[in-house]
Amino acid sequence: MILGDGEPPPHLAARAAHVLHSSGPSQAGELVAELRARIPRDVGVTGEGAEATAIALRQAGLPVTLYRDGGLPSPDLEGIRTLP
User: Fold this and answer.
1) CA angle centred on 19, ends 26 and 41, rounded to 5°
2) How remote is the C-alpha of 84 from its chain's centroid?
3) If 0-12 CB within 10 Å is exposed, 13-18 middle and 19+ buried, where does residue 46 land?
4) From CA 10, how far away is CA 22, in angstroms rounded?
5) Cα–chain center distance at 82
6) 82 burial class (0-12, 13-18, 19+ CB within 10 angstroms)?
7) Which of 19, 38, 51, 56 could be a cystine partner for 28, CB 3.0 to 4.6 Å?
């Protein structure tokens, strides 16, 4: 499952069973409810606000992978798998 505000990169979209669009962490409660109904093996997060969304989902107990390019990872991302 891929979650983000824009179109995910083609290589991620090709592997995803579902693609959800989000406006960021402000919808975290709604997203957690929808994701728990699907019981995903992994939730890939990409796009604007991806770090905050990944943190919120991880705190809710969901398996999260953050896809981002460049920059050093924030210390808040501890426990979240981060890939380019």
Assistant:
1) 90
2) 13
3) buried
4) 18
5) 10
6) middle
7) 56
In the chain, count of helices (H) and strands (E)?
A: 3, 5
Q: Cα(1)–Cα(62) distance, rounded to whole angstroms? A: 12
Reading the block at residue 46, the tokens are 């990409």
Tokens in use for 4?
């983000």
Model confidence pLDDT, tens digit, residues 37-74: 777 889 898 887 788 888 888 998 889 999 988 777 67
Mapped onto helix, strand or coil, the DSSP state of residue 6 is coil
Alpha-carbon gap, residue 56 to 9, rounded angstroms: 22
pTM, full prediction: 0.77
